[in-house]
Design goal:
It is found in: Cytoplasm. Belongs to the class-I aminoacyl-tRNA synthetase family. Keywords: Aminoacyl-tRNA synthetase, ATP-binding, Cytoplasm, Ligase, Nucleotide-binding, Protein biosynthesis. With 810 residues, the chain is of the alpha+beta class. The chain folds into five domains: 201 residues, Rossmann fold, CATH 3.40.50.620; 150 residues, no CATH class; 190 residues, Valyl/Leucyl/Isoleucyl-tRNA synthetase, editing domain (Isoleucyl-tRNA Synthetase, domain 2, Alpha-Beta Complex); 117 residues, Isoleucyl-tRNA Synthetase, Domain 1 (Orthogonal Bundle), CATH 1.10.730.10; 62 residues, Ubiquitin-like (UB roll) (Roll). The protein contains 27 helices and 34 strands. The strands form ten sheets. Strands 10, 11, 12, 13, 14, 15 and 18 form a seven-stranded mixed sheet that branches. The protein has a four-stranded parallel sheet with strand order 2-1-26-27, with helices on one face. Strands 6-5-9-19 form a four-stranded antiparallel sheet. Bound molecules: ligand ANZ and zinc ion (ZN).
Length: 810
């Protein structure tokens, strides 16, 4: 079947999207693959899932776009090239070819003419154009700052790429800090909108993804408070609890921040230096851990309390982070746990300023962090927390000592990478003109094609820097000799807009055609792994909002609905080389065929749950497919026969299946749809065996419906059935079968069960249940058995099928 239908679809253009088609549109998009090798079980699952809504909406009469492409820049290609003394393009495009062939065989209903690769010049020319658009708007900038540096990958990492205990996401090497001149996108300008627009996604994105995004953006509201410092500038702190201002007994600055070194007095300098030295071996995670013993150094200097004028000692400690808020906090030990532990360790005073009804924190060791009434706070005594916060901000503003402030955990997106295989940053550095954007008619800034092997090895700066022919360029503004920026863009830049490029991937005129993009997007259904819950989705949402602000798109969120598929595991564990429990997709396809593997993926569990390959049976799927196929083979009624004249029992099952499948598909319960199809096939087979055989038009109807619904999961079998049933065109472009309401009428009723005339229980039974069967079922109910036992046994049973059973006892 594979050999027959694959070329058919290609010649027929079954899945090619016609832009002249005026039917309503649906856009189903799978997160595009990275060309790491051939397809694996994870791809097989994700793409089987993504193909279901695409094929479903197509049958429902929509003009469906379901494209595919490759996220083809990135480190693995470069590492392979270094190892094999080759150019990264070789490895990349070989793998893409292999994967593309496998995807075709896997029968994803894709319009192949839309295929794109982010490493094509045709694509990255526009990635560079987008970078320059952001640059024009002041949303791309360069700054020198300490950044996350992976000593093994020899490149910087975005905060998002530092995981777990502070290790590199890719190679798990502990990440260090290094001061470098780096490019950033100002995603922080969009923090509020990234948060607030999530309202549009509520209910159609997984709640946990929304929670992770919210957390990552981390909006806190509070106040910014300025403390005067003798012989120094004011120090500003961010606090969520300005109502606790009278409880401030010390101030802490991040020990590793510049501020600490500037504030420290000569007498304390040596102690601070020693402390900072020790800190270098402590990871960020450890520093933030709540149960770590507090450490710190007094800086020898004092701040002035803005309301009481008291002298507040300034300390440096590691529990305050340099890059959050202002890198300094006001210490309120009575009401903040970390401050309390710090105060108890260094014998600093603990002043209660909110009465929460708790024991004195200095005694209990537990900060009174909850709700309460302000005390010992002359300007807002007696006010409850929220009112006290409002009042304290008014006081601060009146005194010019502070104001309301919103703070975010989100940092700007560090996008430059010191690696070769990415889109070069289209900026020229001129000794006279400074940063000069590469003019549009000089795009793309192409990657050299003649660098290979060792020339690409990481050296702490981009390998491009060593290619002086490439680096040296005339300044587009003054013509003097200038140099190209040698960094390349994070591959997350590439993947932040590919779903828009699919609308016209071959265009040399524009990144995308606005009008058409507005017709197709936002994506109706996005499908991909939860590992992208933060990075890729946040960046794509950011890009979309920027494009919206530029008037280039008319929507503010790129993905209307998101489905995170589970993982394919084996024996309850993730597949891994070390466990030796990997399953090879190619072998599975050879053994069972594409359809059986796809069906197994869908039948195993709801799409968002894991599929344990040790618990499933592709052989059973194969058997089911054969059963379905034989159904079509056994149909012998003529194609025009009126189904209404067929067996009513089977018709009821068929129409109930259509109605339920529709609801289940829209609810993404694909596994249940498969289960219902199995029931339908069984019912049809029963009818063939017991009734008029394949000549009954109800059997034809059941077989046709089976082929149509099955086409979402097992396209080869479905196509073959459809042809056997006498159709010329592809089942994929047929229609979604319609159901007759009249056939859906409930065929069960509720029977009541009485004991001595009193209603004791109910049960759902078929309308045509026999008296004896009803009696048996009623007497078997646990509740009824209890009453019978209590009342001294059954004397008589009165049955009025199907609605009543009365048990006389005693
Ligand atoms: C005084 C205070 C009193 C605070 C109190 C809390 C409770 P989120 O919700 O995370 O924004 N803080 C501010 N900057 C910090 C930094 N760079 N490193 C570590 N901690 C920092 O929390 C904000 C609170 O975390 C701020 O409010 C500050 O402590 C602390 F009863 O200020 B608070
Ligand atoms: Zn110049």
């Amino acid at each position: 079947m594979e050999a027959k239908w694959l070329p058919f679809w290609e010649q027929d253009g079954t899945f090619v999207v016609d832009e002249a088609d005026t039917r309503p549109k649906k856009y189903v998009c799978d997160m595009f693959p990275y060309p790491s090798g051939d397809l694996h079980m994870g791809h097989a699952e994700a793409f089987a899932i993504g193909d279901v809504p695409a094929r479903y909406w197509r049958l429902r009469g929509y003009n469906v776009l379901h494209p595919i492409g490759w996220d083809s820049f990135g480190l693995p290609a470069e590492n392979a090239a270094i190892k094999n003394n080759a150019h990264p393009a070789e490895w990349t495009y070989n793998n893409i070819d292999t994967q593309a062939a496998s995807f075709k065989r896997y029968a994803i209903s894709t319009d192949w003419s839309r295929r794109l690769h982010t490493s094509d010049e045709l694509y990255y020319r526009w990635t560079q154009w987008l970078f320059l658009k952001l640059y024009e708007r002041g949303l791309a900038y360069r700054k020198n700052s300490p950044v996350n540096w992976c000593p093994s990958c020899q490149t910087v990492l975005a905060n998002e790429q530092v995981i777990g205990d502070g290790v590199c996401e890719r190679c798990k090497t502990p990440v260090t800090k290094k001061a470098l001149n780096q490019w950033y996108f100002k995603i922080t300008d969009y923090a509020d909108r990234l948060l607030d627009d999530m309202e549009q996604l509520e209910g159609s994105w997984p709640e946990r993804v929304l929670a992770m995004q919210r957390n990552w953006i981390g909006r806190s509201t509070g106040a910014s408070v300025r403390f005067r410092v003798e012989d120094y500038e004011d120090i500003e702190v961010f606090t969520t609890r300005p109502d606790t201002l009278y409880g401030v007994t010390f101030m802490v600055v991040a020990a590793d921040a510049e501020l600490a070194a500037e504030l420290v007095t000569d007498a304390q300098r040596a102690e601070l230096e020693e402390y900072r030295e020790k800190l270098k071996s402590v990871s960020e995670i450890e520093r933030q851990s709540a149960d770590r013993e507090k450490t710190g150094v007094f800086l020898g200097r004092y701040a002035v309390h803005p309301l009481t004028g008291e002298q507040i000692p300034i300390w440096a400690a590691d529990y305050v982070l340099a890059d959050y808020g202002t890198g300094a906090v006001m210490g309120v030990p009575a009401h903040d746990q970390r401050d309390l532990e710090f105060a108890l360790k260094f014998e600093l005073p603990v002043n209660v300023v909110v009465d929460t009804g708790n024991e004195n924190p200095a005694v209990s060791g537990e900060a009174a962090a909850g709700e309460g009434v302000a005390v010992n706070s002359p300007k807002w005594d007696g006010l409850a927390k929220d009112e006290a916060i409002t009042r304290s901000i008014e006081v601060l503003e009146a005194d010019g000592a502070g104001e309301a402030k919103v703070n975010y955990r989100l940092r700007d997106w560090l996008l430059s990478r010191q690696r070769f295989w990415g889109a070069p940053i289209p900026i020229i550095h001129c000794p006279d003109c400074g940063e000069v954007p590469v003019p549009d008619d000089q795009l793309p800034v192409q990657l050299p094609t003649d660098m290979r092997g060792e020339e690409l090895a990481p050296k702490g700066q981009s390998p491009l820097a060593s290619n002086s022919d490439w680096v040296t360029v005339d300044c587009p503004e003054c013509g003097k000799t200038a140099t190209r920026d040698t960094d390349t863009m994070d591959t997350f830049v590439d993947s932040s807009w590919y779903y828009i490029r699919y609308i016209d991937p071959q265009s040399t005129e524009a990144a995308f055609p606005t009008e058409l993009v507005n017709e197709w997007l936002p994506v109706d259904q996005y499908v991909g792994g939860v590992e992208h819950a933060i990075l890729h989705l946040l960046y794509s949402r950011f890009f979309t909002k920027v494009l919206y602000d530029m008037g280039l798109v008319n929507f503010t969120e790129p993905f209307k609905a998101l489905l995170n598929q589970g993982q394919v595991i084996n024996g309850g564990k993730a597949m891994s080389k070390s466990l030796g429990n990997g399953v090879n997709l190619g072998e599975q396809l050879e053994a069972f065929g594409v359809d059986a593997v796809r069906l197994t993926m869908l039948f195993a569990s709801p799409p968002e749950d894991d599929v344990d390959w040790a618990d499933v049976s592709p052989a059973a799927s194969q058997k089911f497919l054969a059963r379905a196929w034989r159904l079509a083979q056994d149909v012998s009624s003529d194609p025009g026969a009126d189904a209404a004249t067929g067996a009513q029992g089977l018709r009821a099952v068929t129409h109930r299946t259509i109605a339920d499948a529709q609801a289940l598909l829209e609810d993404q319960k694909y596994n249940v749809v498969v289960a219902r199809l199995m029931e339908l096939v069984n019912a049809a087979r029963k009818e063939i065996d017991s009734g008029a055989g394949g000549a009954d038009p109800a059997v034809r109807e059941a077989a046709e419906v089976t082929a149509q619904i099955l086409s979402l999961a097992a396209p080869y079998t479905a196509e073959d059935m459809w042809e056997m049933l006498g159709h010329q065109a592809s089942v994929s472009n047929s229609t979604w079968p319609s159901y007759e309401e009249a056939l859906l009428v409930e065929d069960t009723v509720t029977a009541v069960v009485q004991v001595k005339g009193k209603l004791r229980d109910k049960l759902e039974v078929p309308v045509d249940i026999s008296e004896s069967e009803l009696e048996e079922k009623a007497l078997a109910l646990p509740k009824i058995q209890r009453y019978i036992a209590e009342d001294g046994g059954v004397r008589k049973v009165i049955v009025r099928a199907p609605k009543l059973v009365n048990v006389v006892t005693g």
